[in-house]
């Protein structure tokens, strides 16, 4: 297969160019929480399903993150899939140096002491089964034990460095087509 004449030349892959390329991939925005003193929580776009038999999910976390010390010891974590209206919640859990669980964040203590955020599209309580350190991140593998999901709603997405949702894109496409 030949490339079109106007396609750009390949460039060397490094951390910065990979980050730029991955901005083209839309990801569901999640918040991961873990019990501790203090409890930990952070926004992640790296959540994915790994296996269905047995059910295993994963997410990644920078080893320099303020949440890593708690996550590195946690036996259970909460994974919350954010709804499209939860941009501020995503920003709160992406902000360093603040109490992410302070008001206006609404949450309760769930099973195994894991903080469960209110109003999310879905949440999973997961038992951590492994942590694999790769480069400057850890891949956390976890087995869902409990879950709850809404029957309606649209997920919050992260694409090209900003929060987005499916309805915005659908409305924009509908206006262009009309």
- Which value, in Å, is the CA radius of gyration? 18 Å
> How are helices and strands ordered from N to C?
HEEEEEHEHEEEEEEH
> What fold name stands as the CATH topology?
Pnp Oxidase, Chain A
Strand arrangement, major sheet = 3-2-6-9-10-5-4
Largest sheet entry:
7 strands, antiparallel
Keywords:
3-stranded antiparallel β-sheet, about 180 residues, 7-stranded antiparallel β-sheet, alpha+beta, Pnp Oxidase, Chain A
Fold and architecture overview:
- It holds the Pfam family Flavin_Reduct.
- GO terms for molecular function: FMN binding; riboflavin reductase (NADPH) activity.
- This is NADH-FMN oxidoreductase RutF, flavin reductase (DIM6/NTAB) family.
- The chain has 178 residues and is of the alpha+beta class.
- 18% of the residues lie in helices and 40% in strands.
- It has a seven-stranded antiparallel beta sheet.
- A hairpin with a 5-residue loop joins strand 2 (30-34) and strand 3.
- The protein is globular, with a radius of gyration of 18 Å.
Short description:
The protein is α+β, with helices and mostly antiparallel strands and 178 residues long.
Secondary-structure map:
Layout: H1 15-22, E1 27-28, E2 30-34, E3 40-44, E4 48-52, E5 55-62, H2 68-71, E6 76-81, H3 87-94, E7 107-109, E8 115-117, E9 122-134, E10 137-149, E11 156-159, E12 162-165, H4 166-177
Antiparallel strand pairs: 1-11, 2-3, 2-6, 4-5, 5-10, 6-9, 7-8, 9-10, 11-12
């Amino acid at each position: 297969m030949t490339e079109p004449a106007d396609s750009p030349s390949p460039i060397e892959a490094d951390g910065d160019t990979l980050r730029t390329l991955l901005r083209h991939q839309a990801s569901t925005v999640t918040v991961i929480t873990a019990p501790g003193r203090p409890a930990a929580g952070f926004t992640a776009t790296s959540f994915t399903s790994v296996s269905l038999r047995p059910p295993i999910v994963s997410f990644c976390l920078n080893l320099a993150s303020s949440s890593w010390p708690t996550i590195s010891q946690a036996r259970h974590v909460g994974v919350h899939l954010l709804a499209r209206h939860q941009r501020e919640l995503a920003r709160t859990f992406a902000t360093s140096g603040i109490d992410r669980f302070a008001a206006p964040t609404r949450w309760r203590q769930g099973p195994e002491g894991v903080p469960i955020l209110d109003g999310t599209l879905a949440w999973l309580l997961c038992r951590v089964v492994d942590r694999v350190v790769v480069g400057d991140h850890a891949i956390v593998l976890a087995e869902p034990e409990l879950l709850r999901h809404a029957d309606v709603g649209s997920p919050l997405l992260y694409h090209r460095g900003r929060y987005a949702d499916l309805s915005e894109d659908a409305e924009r496409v509908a206006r262009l087509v009309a």
